[in-house]
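Kindly go through the following sequence and its backbone structure tokens. Advise at your convenience whether the structure tokens fit the sequence:

___
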Amino acid sequence: MPSSSQKYSDEGLNLILFSIPQDVILQIGTGALLVALLGSKALSETLQAISQASEEVFRGDRLPLLNPVETESEPS
């Protein structure tokens, strides 16, 4: 157990020319996670809108009415 006179080292990521503290890495990771969550929510809403629009195409309300072709029956 460390004594109260010892301080915890906040090393973080040590690179050759500089080091990045753990606090900064945590902030960047949190921001990236929030952006990913918001992006996935927007993507799911967009995909739902696209699927509803494609459903409208196949519903048949906007398709033109076709006259049935009458075939002449051959005399037997």
In short: The chain has a mean pLDDT of 79. The radius of gyration is 33 Å. The first strand starts at residue 13 and ends at 14.
